[in-house]
Structures are given as structure tokens and as C-alpha cells.
Amino acid sequence: MGDPKAFLTIHRKEAGCRPVHDRIHDFGEVEQTLNSGDRRLQASRCMDCGVPFCHWACPLGNKPPEWNDALYRGDWELAYRLLSSTNDFPEFTGRVCPALCEKACVLNLVEHEPTTNREDEAAITEHAFEEGYVTARATERNGMAVAVVGCGPAGMVAASRLNMAGYSVTVFDRNEDAGGLLRYGIPNFKLNKAVIDRRMALLRAEGICFRFGQDIDVERLPEGFDAYVIATGTPEARNLDVPGRGLKGIYLALDLLAQQNRVLAGAEFKREELVSAKGKDVLVIGGGDTGSDCIGTAHRQGCRSVTQIEIMPQPPAGPDDPQHPWPEWPRTLKTTSSHEEGCTRRWNINTLRFVGKDGRVCGAEVQEVAWKPNPDGGRPIMEPAGKPEVIKADMVLLAMGFIKPQLPQFAPNVFVAGDAASGASLVVRAMASGRDAALRADKFLTGK
Known about the structure:
Layout: H1 6-9, H2 20-23, H3 36-44, H4 53-57, H5 64-72, H6 76-84, H7 90-96, H8 100-103, H9 106-110, H10 117-131, E1 145-149, H11 153-164, E2 168-173, H12 181-184, H13 193-205, E3 209-212, E4 227-230, E5 250-252, H14 253-264, E6 281-285, H15 289-301, E7 305-309, H16 337-340, E8 344-346, E9 349-357, E10 360-372, E11 381-384, E12 389-392, E13 395-398, E14 414-416, H17 419-422, H18 427-446
């Protein structure tokens, strides 16, 4: 622990985001970075707690006290070695992780100013790439082959781990490129896709074979492999089956997000195929991260206005959540950079039907609801609490989450990872699951 009193004199300092009036005109990453001096000062605030709750909270088991101390001392290479020992791709989590570790930080309990672990993680990784600390690794082959179906974060981690264990790894994916929702769900303003491409170049150099455009039926897996890892994610989005759903102008969130990312990558679409918010009043149904991503994308496409509605109650403003006390993750109100760009937000709103004109949506009839405890336990009971009203909208985006896939009973040499196993969750949890699946496959094949 470099400076045991730093947390007393140095306050939390975040890099922040680019100004709204600047960032909404492009898809460049919105987050900025601190200079190396300020970043090391932020790392010095870590107290190296006797019980590191940050380590406890991280699905990957990251060790922030260790690499924060190395960063504070100026040993960036050691910081990266410590970080990458538990996190295969810290350049991803350093950008899109909600930082469970920071909410479990002792400084969050005491001062609500936790150590800037996520930003430190991103800075360490970018420095490592710039200085050449990250290189392709060679490994001796063991004569066995493993297929990974799905090239999202879980599949990429599983492939990397198995490859380093000596297996010949082939990754199949139905998309035209790697990343899963990292590439086709998360907008570029949160994760520049060159970051994925940079890592993919390393994985290829390490000997992993990637086959894209392959829509594999998990009940008919390709032959010639000793084991399989299924990391196909949750491809089916939750729909909203109400009257008027068939009107034009109503889309699933990924219809917008995936297409926009493909356009930025150089893909071309016919005019009638484009999902564009330009000049439109947009209604986003769903209050989670995907809905937030839709808001930011709509602004960059030039929408007229954005309204976001959520059927559940508004979370408490925080910073504390009595229902989920420290060091648990608090379910408090989250305001993202996309929300800051302009958005009307409403809670306890149920959608009754969509209103149309000439076959196109022009609004949504909604009603305020109230939630009451269920006397039998389980999900609370929803009851009408207000009069129906119409929200004007000529574009509706459904961002209500994803449905956990129903998978068959697999053979003993098939292992399921990521969202395919757990249902939709965090990138960091998918990565941890991919690591676990690789370990289970290795134990199965080696008998250890």
C-alpha cells in the first residue's frame, strides 16, 4: 500500500464525458481519460482493505488493491500483469462494466467516493497496448480440439482460455464478425469496435480459428471435436404483444442498435430498410441499459425528441439502497450519459396499445399503474392508477430485455456459458462464465 492516507486527502476524480453539444454529433466514445499523474493519484486512494470487498463483488475475482498499488507506484506493466491474470479482456470491462467492485468499495460505504477501479482498469490496459506489454502468446498443442459456438464475450474468453491450455480451438458465429452484443448491441459511443478488432488480431495470432456466418444448430453440432462450448447468448428479445404491434415504425431495440453499428462499419442498406430516428419523436419502452443505448443512438441520428417509459416504479435516488445495503449492489436510480443528452423519463407506465395512421405508428396509449404486494408472495400485483393517455411517437423502440433460451439436454462433453446459461446479464458475468466453462471442459477432457 503506497500511501495509507491518500484517501483522506485526495477525493474521487472521474474523467467525465465529452460535452453534450459535441458528442451527440458523432459516435466516438463519450468518456474521456485523466492524465497519467491524476490516474496514479486516484489509484493511491485504494486502502488495501484487510477484507477486499471489491474482490468479493467482482464476478471475475479481480484484485484492485494489487493493481491499483502497482499503478500508483508507476509500474504499469506489473499493473497489467496483475489485472490480466484474472480478466482476459480488461479493455472491454474497463469501458462497459457497471463496476460492481466500486459499489462494494469501503470508501463507498464511508464517503460515497469509491476508488475509480473501472477507469483505472481501462487506463492500465490502454497503456499496456501502447507500450507493447500485450503480445500474442505461444502454446504447445495437446492434440485435442474444442469448438466454441458463439463469439460474444463468454465465447471469446472460453476460446482464449482453452487455446492457452493447448487445445485447437475453432469458434463459430452466425454474425459476420466477432463480439456478439459487444459489437452488435453496445453502441460505438460506449465501445469503439476497433477495441474488439485489436483483441481479435491477437487471438488469431495465438492460433484460434474463427468461422463467421455460420448459424450452428446446437442440436446438430459440427463433428470432429472432443468438446463443445455453447455461448450463443440470448438472441430472442422480449416482445410487446398489444394491439397495434404490427404498425410500421415499431422496432425491437437491436433492430436499431445492430444496424447502426453495421452502418458505421461500412455496411449499406436500402432506404426502406433503414431504422432511423431522424426527425422523429421516439418512444423507448424499457428502462434498462439497452433503452439508454437507444436514447443515445436516437440523438445521434437526429431525432426530434425522446421519451422513455418503464413499467416498474422509479428506483430510489440513492446513493444508498436500504433494500440492498453495502456491499451489495444498490438498486438506485441510474442516469447515464445518454439520459444527460435529453430525455423525458417516466415510471409506472403500462402500454395498452399502439395508435396508427395509414399503417404507421403515431402514438402509444399508456396508463399509469401502481404495484401492490402479492398476498401469496412473488411478483407484486399491478393495478391501474390513472387514466389512459396517448404519448405521441412516430418511432417506438422495444427495449424490454431478452428471453433465456430453452436449450436441449446436451452430451457430457458440451458446456454452456454466458447468457445462454444464465439469461441476459452483465458482460463481466458472461466473461466469468466463459472462463468457468473452459475450466470445466478442460477437466472433462483431461480427467483432472
